[in-house]
Predict the 3D structure of the following.
Amino acid sequence: MASGLESYVNHTVSIITSDGRNFIGTLKGFDQTINIILDESHERVYSTTQGVEQVVLGLHIIRGDNVAIVGELDDEMDARLDLSAIRADPLSSIVH
Amino acid sequence: MSQQNAHGEPKERKKKESILDLSKYLEKNIRVKFAGGREAAGILKGYDPLLNLVLDNTTEYLRDPDDPYKLNQDTRMLGLVVCRGTSVVLICPVDGMESIQNPFIQQEG
Amino acid sequence: MLPLSLLRTAQNHPMLVELKNGETYNGHLVSCDSWMNINLREVICTSRDGDKFWRMPECYIRGSTIKYLRIPDEVIDMVKEDVQLKSRGRGEMKGRGQSQRGRGSGRGTFGRGGRGPAALGRGGSNQGGNKPQNKARTK
């Protein structure tokens, strides 16, 4: 496919949406408009005052309009992260 | 109203039906939310397949000046209006719509 | 798997829909179309701040205003058969030289962007049932 997402199918991906949120999950499918099926997903909520909070969400369809970045996640490397020690400002949303 | 052809047979698979049948809301009060945050309610007098609407006795629900998505209690009467379909975000019947307490709290407890 | 196939499979299941304006809608999916427009029933609407709640018997939401939909986990397992049926149907259409949807031909008809009749029958039980001779295609 022209979008290049084909190689990510059934892999763990990290998605940043235009409202500044970060979703992690298994890419199960997508279409021409980059609507995305994300399975076994969770959201990572970043904050400067505490570690990264992970919110379990499950199966998602994310509408392509809101998808800013899709990146493949290295499961092994990700597992080595100590999320409770990470402090970061939340991303702000995209201004249209 | 079901359409029939000259032989009195119902037309079959003539058209791809819209998933929204607005005819059931004709002469009924509907609530409409618009892109950008405006909200209104009025009696549906007419519509087209592009979701352009004609509403009568329309009330607009006014918003917090600082937050265009937050309603306050104020309303204003708009009377007879045409709503542009492309900006319609949501349609629901006013009948049966009610403000409620947080319904998710007891489920989690 | 296509997101809209998953959504179609999720009909009659509960789901949560978040709109771009931040409001969320919890309800059962009644119907959806190829623009992701949806009808929900027995809906609870939550305001953007999560401080106000409304109950509504049903509502129609324009697809383009959706941010995302949360769907029950089990629905993804129900799609699979559907997809297989579909690819069979598509192979069939190719053989008959009807690989394109009848998009744009529907001007003047009631529906928008009328799909050709081929698209309606695609993957449906009629076609699939009448033509079982389709072979497993190698790609």
